[in-house]
Structure prediction request, 232 residues.
Amino acid sequence: MTTTCSGYADLSALMSRMTGDEKHGPAATSTLDVLWVLYDQVLNVTPDTADDPERDRFLLSKGHGPMAYYAVLAAKGFVPPEVLPGFGSYGSPLGHHPDRTLVPGVEIGSGSLGHGLPIGVGTALGLRAQGRTGPRVWVLVGDAELDEGSNDEAIAYAGPAALESLGAVVVDNASASRTRPGGLGAPFETAGWTVRAVDGRDHDALYEAFTAPHPGRPLAVVARVESKTAGE
Prediction:
């Protein structure tokens, strides 16, 4: 564990240390601001509380292209910046998909799309069963990832189950192969979620959306970002 903490301005330099073969660059950079606002202003978790049962949980379902995730974890002291140059290499803990057994602060191994939101639903249900009303569960998914049917089932379940502790962030970088009637937020609204749509680069707007009251409902935030190349 490292106690070194950096700011948003340092993220570009931290990402530049990861020089390995990365096939999902746009998928990584499109999540950078969402990840930063969550870890800097919203999530109740630190390197010292990463195993605390009362911590907030963050699940990166969009596990392709985790460079931005690793940079934010390094900036916040979960992993030492010295391991970043080994990204994707043999023996490095920082793989092309995050591994919860190797990277401090990572809640799930991800990268196979469509798994994170169902796991998030189960996590929220487990916390409710334990009587833990404080921790929040946040899941970051990609726009194209919503094509996976497992997400439809998770969305349809979470609303009627009134999983108020659950939040989903959909990063919309225009990579989806098909459009959805009513937009990306429509399935969430239909299932009874509270939905907010914001500029995914605007930190103030993201913070306001993440912290907006949504009593008795899960929260979905659709974060729009521009991307010249499609990601996941």
Observations:
- Residues 116-129 form the longest helix (14 residues).
- The mean pLDDT is 90.
- The beta strands are 57-60, 137-142, 166-172, 194-199, 219-224.
- Residues 147 and 176 are 8 Å apart (CA to CA).
